[in-house]
Design brief:
The complex is a heterodimer of chains A (582) and B (361).
Chain A lengths: L16 H33 E2 L2 E2 L2 H8 L1 H34 L5 H9 L7 H11 L4 H6 L9 H26 L3 H8 L4 H12 L1 H17 L2 H6 L6 H11 L3 H31 L14 H30 E3 L3 E4 L14 H10 L4 H9 L1 H31 L4 H9 L6 H12 L10 H11 L1 H12 L4 H9 L4 H12 L1 H17 L15 H10 L3 H26 L12
Antiparallel strand pairs in A: 1-2, 3-4
Helix pairs in contact in A: 1-13, 1-17, 1-18, 1-19, 3-7, 3-10, 5-7, 5-14, 7-10, 8-9, 10-13, 12-13, 13-19, 14-26, 15-16, 17-18, 17-20, 17-21, 17-24, 21-24, 22-23, 24-26, 25-26
Chain B lengths: L4 E10 L2 E11 L4 E5 L6 H9 L6 E6 L2 E2 L5 H4 L1 E4 L11 H11 L4 H15 L14 H13 L5 E5 L7 H18 L2 E6 L2 H7 L2 E6 L2 E6 L1 H6 L4 H6 L4 E8 L2 E3 L4 E3 L9 E7 L4 E4 L13 E11 L3 E8 L2 E8 H6 L7 E6 L5 E4 L6
The chains are: A mainly alpha (582), B alpha+beta (361).
C-alpha cells in the first residue's frame, strides 16, 4: 500500500481551470467596467472640481450664481416632477384596466403601449410639433391660434408619452402579482368598491407605484432628445450640458452641470432599484386567480380610457409617418418620397459605399443609398454588433455573478447595475474627456460608440440574465462537471442553451437601444461617423423637419423589422418583459 | 482492495456552525453505503465533500490511497445522481447519457455502443430520442442513473435520488438501484432521510445526527441493536420508558420493569426502548403464564390501525402508552377490539437499555 500523501489542514486555494476561468472573466469585466464606466465619470468629476491641478469650487459658484444657468436645474426638476406625477397616475389606471378588469382587447392595448420603446425619444417631440407647433395642424389649422407647445408643456407631454411604457411595465407586473383575492376578501367583509381600491389595492401596490414614479423621474431628467427638439428657450440640465460643450467649448462647465445632474438621477435610480427589490419580495407565487367580470360602467370606462391612451400613442407614430410622406406640412398634403432623399449627410463609410457601388448601377439612386443613407447603415452595423456583443457580455457577467459567486462578486454586481444611474449625456461627455487622446486608438471609430452603448445599457442585460439564471437548477451544472465537463464546456453546452430565450430578448433590447439612443452617443459621432438617430436631431435643428421625420420613420421601420424577424425565428415576442431602465 | 474510500477526521464548518464534525469511515470497494439522518444532520455535506463540490475544513478524503481533498470534481471521476434528476433539458435521453462519454473523448462508435448498453440496463431504449420534459419523474431518474454510470465511474454517489418521486415508483426504483449495484459491483454511496429505504438497500448504514456518525453497521444491527436512544428512535418505531435502574429492575415511577441483568449502579437514570413487534397483547391472562410476571401489565386498546399484514395497537396503560404490532392472523385469533381491557407483555430480553442522554429526546 502506498503511503498516504499528506494534506494541509486548511484547504488551500484551489488553482485550477475553473478558478482560472472565473477569475479571468471577472478580471476582464472589472477592467472593462472600470475603464469604460468609472474612469469617464471620475474624469468628469475631476474636471469640475479642479482647475490647473488645484481643487476649486469655482465652477459650482459660477453655476449657481448665474440665474440664467441655474434656471436649468429648476426647470429640470419641475418638468421631471410634473411628468412623474402625471405618468404614474395614467400608467397606474392603464395597468389597473389591463390586470383587474375584464375589458376587451387587452393584448392590443398592451402591445400599443409598448410601441414608444422602438423609437428614438425624439419621435414624441417631432409629432407634437407637427400637431401643436407653430405650424401645427391642430393649433394653426384647426384652431387658428398662435399658441404653440414649445417649452415646458411640450417637454412634459412628450416625456409622458415616452415614459408611459416604462412606468406601465412596472405597474403591470406589480398589479398582476398582487393577489386579487385580497380585494375579494375585503369586499366579502363589506367594503365598498371604492374603499377596497383605496384601502387594499392601492396600498398593496405602493412599492410598485413609487418605483414607477422614480423611474419616470430618472428617465425624464436624463433625457436629451425631447427637450432639445421641443424645449425652445426652456433649458434643462441635459440640454445645458450640450450647449456649454458644443456652443461654448466649455468642457469644465459641461462637467459641472453633469455632476449636478448626477445627483437627482442617481438618487432616483437608487430609490427605484431599492423599491423594485422590495416590490418583487412581495410577489407571491400564487396562481393568478380568476378576475370577476367587471360591472358594465367600469368596463366601458376603462375600455374608453385604454383606447384614448392607445390612440395618443398611435397618433405620435401616425403623425411622424405622415409628416415624412407629405410635401409641405401642413399646407400641402400631397404625398411624396422626396424627404427620404436626405440632404447630403453622407459620411465616408467605405464598407457600405463599396458594397452598394458593387450591387447598384451608378446614378442618383446609388448616391442616395450608398452615401446619403450612410448614417443608417452605420447605425445598423453598430446595432448588430452591439446586440451580439452586449447580450453576450452581459450574459457572461450575469453567469459569474449568479452562479460562480467569486470573491468581489458584489463589486462586479454594483458596477454592472450602475450604468442605469448615469445619464447618457454625462457618460457621453465623460467618454470625450477620458478618451479623446491620441493614444486611445479606438476614439473616433465606431468601436467607441459600440462600447459606449454596450456599457450604457449594461444594467438591464445583467438583471435579465441573472433573473433567468436563477431558474437553472444548480445540480444541472454540477451534473455536467461530475461527468467531466470543464467550465467552458459547461457554459457553452449547458448554461448557454438554457439561457437562449433571455439571451435573444437581451439581443433585441440592445439592438433597439443602439438604433434609437441619442443622448449617450451624441458626443461620439463625428463628420466621419454619423448615426441615424443623431441625424434626426441635426436635421431638425437644421430646419429640415420633414427629413427628420423621414429619418425617424426609417429607424422605426428597421427596429420593427428586426422585432418581427426575431419573433419569427424564435417564436417569442421580443418586447416581452422588456423595458428600458433609462 | 485498493480502491477503497476513506474519510479521516473529516470536518466542515460554515462560520461558527459545524455541519460535519470529525467523522471517520472506511468504505470498501463494491460496498453499498447509505448515509441516513434527519434533514440538517450533515449527510449531504459529507457527500458533497466526497464529490468535491465542497471543500473540507479539516480532515481528509482518501481514495485509492491518495488524498483527494484538492482534486477538482471533474478529476475525481465519481458519478452523481441528484435529487432533482438534473438532466440537461436541452438534450435528448441519448445525448444526456452520451455526455460524459463525449467529455472523456471516447470514439463515436464506442459511445453509441455504450449508450445502447446503458439504455438496455434500464429498459428505456424506446425513449432514446425524447427530451427529459417528456418523461415521468421515475423515468428521468432512471436516465440520470445510467447517465452517471455510463462513463464507468469509480464510485457512484446518490443524493436523495428517490425523494422527489411518489411512493410506488420509489419502491420500484429502489429495487432497481439495488439490482444495478449487485450487477455492476460498483461502490455506491447513497444519502437519504428515509430509514426504510436505507435499511432495505444498503450493505452498511451510517446513521448521522448533528454532524456526527451515531452508528455505523449492517441494517439488521442498526435495527436490532441500536447503540443510542437516538438511533432506536430514528430507525424504526420504538416505545420508550424513562426510569431509574437498580440491578435488573427499572422503576419508571408508574411500574417496575424487569430487564436483562447488568451490573449497573443503583439509581442510574436510563431509557428503555422496545420495538412494537416485541410487545405482546392478550385478551385474557395468558396460559401458560408468562416467563416474567413482573412485565405483565394491564391496559386498554385505544386505537386500532390496520396496516395490511400487521395490525398496530395503541394501548393505554395507566398514564403511559405503548405501541404493539401484531400480525393480522393473531389479531383475529385473539379477537381484539378497540376499547378492550387487555394484558400487555414485554419480555425482559426485548428491552434495549440506554443511559439517559441529557436533554436529548
Amino acid at each position: 500500500m502506498n503511503p498516504v500523501e499528506p494534506s494541509g489542514k486548511k484547504s488551500s486555494i484551489r488553482f485550477n481551470a475553473d478558478n482560472l476561468f472565473t477569475g479571468g472573466i471577472m478580471a476582464f469585466l472589472l477592467v472593462i467596467l472600470s475603464v469604460f464606466l468609472l474612469y469617464p465619470v471620475v474624469d468628469i468629476c475631476r474636471l469640475s472640481f479642479f482647475k490647473d491641478g488645484v481643487f476649486t469650487l469655482q465652477n459650482y459658484v459660477d453655476y449657481f450664481s448665474e440665474p440664467r444657468i441655474f434656471r436649468s436645474f429648476y426647470n429640470s426638476m419641475f418638468v421631471s416632477m410634473v411628468t412623474m406625477v402625471i405618468t404614474t397616475v395614467l400608467a397606474f389606471l392603464f395597468a389597473y384596466g389591463l390586470t383587474r378588469t375584464t375589458i376587451p382587447g387587452k393584448m392590443f392595448f398592451y402591445t400599443i403601449s409598448t410601441l414608444p420603446l422602438i423609437a428614438p425619444t425624439i419621435i414624441q417631440a417631432l409629432a407634437l410639433i407637427l400637431l401643436f407647433g407653430r405650424n401645427g395642424v391642430i393649433t394653426r389649422y384647426l384652431l387658428g391660434t398662435s399658441w404653440n407647445i414649445y417649452g415646458a408643456t411640450g417637454i412634459i407631454v412628450g416625456e409622458i408619452l415616452y415614459c408611459f411604457p416604462n412606468a406601465l411595465f412596472i405597474l403591470y407586473t406589480t398589479l398582476s402579482a398582487v393577489d386579487t383575492r385580497l380585494d375579494e376578501a375585503a369586499q366579502s367583509l363589506g367594503a365598498s368598491a371604492m374603499k377596497t381600491f383605496f384601502k387594499v389595492t392601492l396600498p398593496s401596490a405602493k412599492y410598485g407605484i413609487a418605483s414607477a414614479a422614480a423611474l419616470t423621474f430618472n428617465l425624464t431628467i436624463t433625457d436629451f432628445g425631447i427637450p432639445v427638439v421641443i424645449g425652445g428657450d426652456y433649458s434643462v440640465l441635459a440640454t445645458e450640458i450640450v450647449n456649454k460643450v458644443f456652443g461654448l467649448q466649455r468642457f469644465d462647465l459641461g462637467a459641472t452641470i453633469s455632476v449636478i445632474l448626477l445627483i437627482p438621477s442617481i438618487t432616483a435610480f437608487g430609490i427605484n432599484y431599492y423599491l423594485t427589490r422590495k416590490s418583487y419580495a412581495m410577489i407571491s407565487g400564487q396562481a393568478r386567480p380568476f378576475i370577476q367580470p367587471s360591472r358594465p360602467l367600469k368596463k366601458w370606462a376603462f375600455t374608453a380610457y385604454s383606447a384614448l391612451i392607445s390612440s395618443c400613442i398611435l397618433l405620435v407614430f401616425v403623425t411622424v409617418f405622415l409628416g415624412s410622406f407629405v410635401r409641405t406640412w401642413p399646407y400641402d398634403f400631397s404625398l411624396t418620397l422626396q424627404h427620404f432623399d436626405f440632404p447630403s449627410l453622407g459620411a465616408s463609410v467605405p464598407l457600405w459605399t463599396a458594397f452598394w457601388n458593387s450591387v447598384l448601377e451608378p446614378g442618383t439612386f446609388r448616391t442616395m443609398i450608398g452615401i446619403k443613407y450612410a448614417p443608417i447603415w452605420t447605425s445598423l452595423l453598430v446595432s448588430l454588433v452591439v446586440a451580439v456583443v452586449g447580450a453576450s457580455i452581459t450574459l457572461v457577467a450575469a453567469y459569474i455573478i449568479e452562479k460562480k459567486k467569486p470573491r468581489g462578486e458584489q463589486l462586479l454586481y454594483s458596477l454592472s447595475v450602475l450604468p442605469a444611474a448615469i445619464p447618457g449625456v454625462v457618460l457621453g461627455l465623460g467618454y470625450v474627456l477620458a478618451f479623446n487622446k491620441p493614444y486611445f486608438l479606438i476614439y473616433g471609430t465606431i468601436w467607441i460608440i459600440i462600447i459606449n452603448i454596450v456599457i450604457a445599457n449594461f444594467t438591464l442585460g445583467v438583471l435579465s440574465g441573472t433573473a433567468n439564471l436563477k431558474q437553472i437548477d444548480k445540480s444541472v451544472e454540477e451534473a455536467a462537471v461530475s461527468l467531466g465537463a470543464g467550465p467552458v464546456t459547461t457554459f457553452t453546452r449547458i448554461v448557454f442553451p438554457l439561457s437562449k430565450v433571455a439571451f435573444l430578448s437581451t439581443t433585441t433590447f440592445y439592438f433597439m437601444r443602439a438604433m434609437t439612443t441619442i443622448s449617450a452617443v451624441l458626443f461620439l459621432v463625428s463628420a466621419q461617423i454619423k448615426l441615424a438617430a443623431i441625424e434626426i436631431i441635426f436635421l431638425d435643428v437644421d430646419g429640415r423637419t420633414a427629413s427628420a421625420n423621414a429619418m425617424c420613420t426609417v429607424v422605426v421601420f428597421i427596429v420593427a423589422l428586426f422585432l418581427i424577424i426575431m419573433r419569427m425565428t424564435t417564436g417569442s415576442s421580443g418586447l416581452t418583459g422588456m423595458s428600458a431602465t433609462r | 482492495m485498493g480502491r477503497d474510500l476513506k474519510l479521516e477526521n473529516l470536518t466542515k464548518r460554515y462560520g461558527l456552525v459545524t455541519a460535519v464534525d470529525h467523522v471517520d469511515l472506511e468504505i470498501r470497494e463494491g460496498e453499498f453505503i447509505c448515509f441516513l439522518g434527519p434533514s440538517g444532520c450533515g449527510k449531504t455535506t459529507v457527500l458533497r465533500m466526497i464529490t468535491g463540490f465542497e471543500t473540507a475544513t479539516e480532515g481528509k478524503v482518501i481514495f485509492n490511497n491518495r488524498v483527494i481533498n484538492d482534486l477538482i470534481p471533474k478529476k475525481r471521476e465519481f458519478g452523481i445522481v441528484f435529487q432533482s434528476y438534473a438532466l440537461f433539458p436541452n438534450m435528448t435521453v441519448e445525448e444526456n447519457i452520451a455526455f460524459g462519454l463525449k467529455m472523456r473523448k471516447m470514439p463515436k462508435k464506442a459511445i453509441a455502443e455504450r449508450v445502447n448498453v446503458m439504455l438496455d440496463l434500464i429498459g428505456l431504449s424506446s425513449w432514446r430520442s425524447l427530451y427529459p420534459a417528456q418523461l415521468s419523474g421515475g423515468q428521468q431518474q432512471r436516465v440520470a442513473l445510467v447517465r452517471a454510470l455510463a462513463p464507468d465511474p469509480q464510485v457512484l454517489l446518490l443524493d436523495e435520488p428517490l425523494s422527489a418521486l411518489d411512493a410506488k415508483i420509489r419502491l420500484r426504483l429502489r429495487a432497481e438501484i439495488k439490482r444495478l449495484q449487485q450487477e455492476l459491483k460498483k461502490t455506491m454511496i447513497h444519502v437519504t432521510h428515509d430509514q426504510e429505504e436505507a435499511l432495505s438497500i444498503a450493505d452498511r448504514v451510517v446513521v448521522m445526527e448533528g454532524g456526527k456518525f451515531r452508528q455505523v453497521g449492517r441494517p439488521i444491527d442498526i435495527y436490532k441493536n441500536p447503540t443510542s436512544r437516538f438511533v432506536a428512535d430514528f430507525v424504526g418505531t420504538s416505545n420508550f420508558f424513562d426510569g431509574r435502574r437498580t440491578s435488573d429492575v427499572v422503576d419508571t415511577g408508574r411500574r417496575k420493569i424487569k430487564v436483562l441483568q447488568n451490573g449497573a449502579a443503583a439509581g442510574e437514570a436510563v431509557s428503555l426502548s422496545i420495538r412494537p413487534e416485541n410487545v405482546e397483547v392478550f385478551k385474557k391472562k395468558p396460559i401458560p403464564p408468562v416467563v416474567e410476571p413482573m412485565n405483565l401489565f394491564t391496559g386498554r386498546i385505544d386505537v386500532v390501525v390496520f396496516q395490511g399484514a400487521a395490525v398496530r395497537l395503541l394501548v393505554h396503560m395507566d398514564g403511559e402508552e405503548i405501541i404493539s404490532d401484531i400480525i393480522e392472523k393473531e389479531f383475529e385469533q385473539r379477537d381484539l377490539k378497540q376499547g378492550d381491557e387487555v394484558y400487555v407483555y414485554c419480555s425482559p430480553e426485548a428491552f434495549m437499555v440506554f443511559p439517559e442522554e441529557g436533554g436529548r429526546k
